[in-house]
Amino acid sequence: MTGVLPVISAAYSAVEAPESWRNIAPQIARLLNAHAFSVQRQASNVATCETVDSFGLSEDWIREYSRHWDSSNEWRVRGLAAAAARPPSARYAAVHMSSLIAPHDFRKTPTFQQSLSAADLYDCIAIPINAEGDRMWMAFFCGRAKDQFSAGEIAIADELSPHIGRAARLTRDRSAAVRYFD
Q: How far apart are CA 62 and CA 166, in angstroms?
């Protein structure tokens, strides 16, 4: 698939240069033709998540969403449950939210009607960065004009996702080893 190998290469290169992880989500967003993304982290004992990076979403919208809608967002609730239910070998697979809840059903939820639609977030693909303990993922969004991610874009996310998760685990393990030997 066009453009996938440079992103995979960048993810594995980030193992040696962790600061370059910030460049990975924008590259994936371009491949998926996503107009917005967020990188989120959720502690294992907390119902809401923290946005650690984003593009295409205002800080005001993120604060309002986090305060009122995050814990009840069916995309996040079902996405995390689906990822947790997978065998360990499959926990780093991409999650296409429209496969977990039909778009016409999701668009009836208060979260969509009163929050996500205002930010033009009509479909989502999540790529796990950490699926053990505290969870972390990249969420990519398309808007009303596009409505849904295409089969080709979903295939790109499916191809990238295991590599992103593996590179993130290598980065984490390398950092732990460096701290141990310091």
A: 28
Q: Provide the token pair at 163.
A: 């590599």
| Structure tokens belonging to residue 14 | 């980030």
**Residue given tokens 């499959």 in the structure block:** 90
What DSSP element (H or E) covers 38?
Answer: strand 36-42
Both structure tokens of 35:
């107009």
Hey, what amino acid is at 30? R
Contacts of 69 (CB under 8 A, 6+ apart): 110, 111, 114, 115, 116
- State whether the Cα torsion 110-115-121-124 is positive or negative: negative
- Which residue in the block uniquely carries the two structure tokens 């239910």? 85
What is d(CA 171, CA 136) in angstroms, rounded to the nearest whole number?
14
pLDDT digits (tens, 9 = 90+) for 38-85: 998 888 777 678 888 999 999 999 999 888 888 788 887 787 778 778
Distance CA(125)–CA(138), nearest Å, equals 8
For the entire predicted model, the pTM comes to 0.90
102 and 141 Cβ atoms separated by less than 8 Å: no
* pLDDT per position as a tens digit, 72-118: 888 877 877 787 788 877 888 898 988 888 999 999 999 999 999 99
